[in-house]
Amino acid sequence: xTIISLLLLASLLPHLTFTxxxxxxxxxxxxxxxxxxxxxxxxxxxEQHICGGFLISDRFVMTAAHCxxxxxxxxxxxxxxxxxxTNENSVRIKVKSYHPHPQYTGKSFHNDILLxxxxxxxxxxxxxxxxxxxxxxGDIEADSVCSIAGWGRLETNGKQSNHLMETNxxxxxxxxxxxxxxxxxxSASLMMCVYGEGGSCDVCENNI
Length: 208
Prior knowledge:
This protein is mainly β. The protein has one domain: Thrombin, subunit H, CATH 2.40.10.10. It is 9% helix and 26% strand. It is built from two helices and ten strands; from the N terminus they run H-E-E-E-E-E-E-E-E-E-H-E. The chain has helices at 3-12, 174-181, and strands at residues 30-31, 40-45, 48-55, 60-63, 75-78, 91-100, 114-118, 145-150, 165-171, 194-195. A six-stranded antiparallel beta barrel has the order 2-3-4-7-6-5. Strands 1, 8, 9 and 10 form a four-stranded antiparallel beta sheet that branches. A hairpin with a 4-residue loop joins strand 3 (48-55) and strand 4. The radius of gyration is 16 Å and the shape is globular. The protein starts with a helix and ends in a 13-residue tail after the last strand.
């Protein structure tokens, strides 16, 4: 683990989202405006999308550590909107090295962070940009509305979207979340819970 990886991990810890339900994507969402989220990254195995990610520097992508559980070799696609459109000038880059959070065990959602060091620097343009990371730590107030996006499934066991989708979710009170999930799964210092129109947590493993 390099010093830069540790610093990046430390800076990102306060901004994790608790992922509650697997194999579901953007529920009750809509297609995002093409390239309106130029920091979004598709993390892939054998050219198949498995997880979303953020471009946090020209050499690093942040995603979830569980995304590599059964996939030792990952690649990333930058600047994409429609993952099946080969004419939109998206860029595929191989991953040089993997840097999971040192306290990630795979037995819970805690510290579920993975930094991907790219084989070459990303060339920034209108469709490929860095995400803005908050300068200060601090809790996001309950009932705040947040925006999420991803290429995950549109419904449980349903079809996966090739187009980037987005929707709004609402931040849940930490005590309510802890009551629902238990202290073993939820840590208020590392995570937050959100819920969508259906009244349940709609941010899932294939989305960011």
